[in-house]
Automatic annotation (TrEMBL):
Gene3D superfamilies linked to this entry: Aspartate Aminotransferase, domain 1, Type I PLP-dependent aspartate aminotransferase-like (Major domain)
Organism annotation: Parapedobacter luteus
Gene Ontology MF term list: pyridoxal phosphate binding; transaminase activity
Domain Aminotransferase class I/classII large: 33-382
Keywords recorded for this protein, A-Z: Aminotransferase, Transferase
Protein name (database record): Aminotransferase
Length: 389
């Protein structure tokens, strides 16, 4: 039986990684043992005290019921304290914080709350594909804005102002930027807040990478007057090694939280209490947690540089975040061609930059979520393939 799909899903394909992982699984079934350097899912565990907190609360008979739609107070308080301690941003635990089941779901909630057919939303190209998909699912029209290495992957706000901003209601922004690893500056954050105010655009900043290989975590909400025009999503997936736990947060003005909860409370029924208590524990960890994590990522990144050198790719060493973004050599048609070649010849999967938008076509993105031993093996395979070509 054929059932016509809803209009909103007709131009939305299955998520790239969901398809690609199936292809890699199929190769592995034939004994290929593919090394996957594609996805940004931390391979290291959370802090032992976080896992212990989960155990402790899960063992109690009284912690298994539905939870508050706005999360439990200890989690909201831990989020507010974390924002104050690490970003210097003061927010109210009961008014400005909405815990999320991962920031990816938050992206959809925000789009569904504010956008409908006839509206427009700006999103970065290259950028995290979920922004464009969520805008499309809401029925609104996505307007990609080009990012370029010459501007350190920051949007050209003057060009946007001179262009057509009619109908633009919302702008997705993400720094440290994925996939390019570019960090924003305080000046830029102030400028983009002024731009949003001037054009009455809701700024939606997605901030999951600020603690990874970055000495100065920054929140857009530290900019003057940001809370009037901006919301920020954050996540425990990357910086607390809790990607599978699904914990994120949305920070915004009280009206924004109450508006978004009108949609979100119709989608889910809260988060398992032991997960919330464990997340609060993770957010209360001292800076040494991030420092230790970054020592590991820093060593891995050196190996990734070697791997990219073997592929004759070029890259900027100022990048931050969980990946290295690199330009493919002129001998390659684009990042897809190089990615396919490495998968075929070396059984190593590296993400082609084009999946983040055509602004990433000439690039590849290598994840740091693999041990040094695995990266050594990947380098061996790639170096051998280059030599035997
Ligand atoms: C830029 C960006 N935002 C959001 C997410 C999703 O994070 P979460 O696990 O909190 O849903 C990712 C995950 O890769 C990401 O790269």
């Amino acid at each position: 039986m054929q059932i016509e799909l809803a209009k909103r899903i007709q131009h939305t394909e299955e998520y790239y990684f969901s398809r690609k992982l199936r292809e890699i699984d199929a190769l592995n079934q034939t004994g290929a043992k593919v090394i996957n350097l594609g996805i940004g899912s931390p391979d290291l565990p959370p802090h032992p005290s976080v896992v212990e907190t989960l155990h402790q609360y899960a063992a109690m008979p009284t912690t298994h019921g539905y939870q508050n739609y706005k999360g439990i107070h200890p989690l909201r308080k831990a989020i507010a304290d974390w924002y104050h301690r690490y970003y210097g941003v003061s927010i109210h635990a009961d008014r400005n914080v909405l815990p999320l089941i991962g920031s990816k779901e938050g992206i959809v909630h925000v789009c569904m709350t504010y956008l409908a057919e006839g509206d427009k939303a700006l999103f970065p190209n290259p950028g995290y594909p979920a922004y464009a998909s969520a805008v499309r699912l809401s029925g609104a029209t996505g307007v990609p804005y080009k990012l370029a290495s010459q501007r350190n992957w920051l949007p050209d706000l003057d060009a946007l102002t001179k262009g057509d901003l009619s109908g633009v209601k919302l702008m997705w922004l993400n720094y440290p930027h994925m996939p390019t690893g570019a960090a924003a500056t305080t000046t830029f954050f102030n400028e983009v807040v002024a731009f949003a105010k001037q054009h009455r655009i809701l700024l939606c900043h997605d901030n999951p990478y600020s603690f990874i290989l970055n000495n100065q975590p920054q929140s857009l909400l530290a900019a003057d007057g940001a809370l009037d025009v901006a919301i920020e999503l954050n996540s425990l997936s990357k910086s607390s090694n809790m990607a599978g736990w699904r914990v994120g947060t949305l920070i915004g003005a009280e009206e924004r939280i109450n508006e978004i909860i009108r949609f979100k409370s119709n989608m889910d029924s809260g988060m398992f209490l032991p997960v919330q208590m464990a997340a609060a524990k993770a957010l209360s960890l001292d800076p040494e947690w991030y420092q230790e994590l970054n020592k590991t990522y820093s060593r891995r990144r050196e190996k990734v540089y070697q791997l990219l050198d073997a592929l004759a790719c070029t890259y900027d060493k100022q990048q931050v975040g969980l990946f290295v973004w690199a330009k493919v050599p002129a001998s390659q048609a684009d990042g897809y061609a190089l990615s396919d070649e490495i998968l075929r010849q070396s059984r190593v999967f590296i993400t082609p930059g084009g999946i983040f938008g055509d602004g990433g076509n000439a690039y590849i993105r290598v994840s740091l979520c693999a041990t040094e031993a695995v990266l050594d093996e990947a380098l061996d395979r790639i170096a051998n393939a280059v030599i035997t070509q």
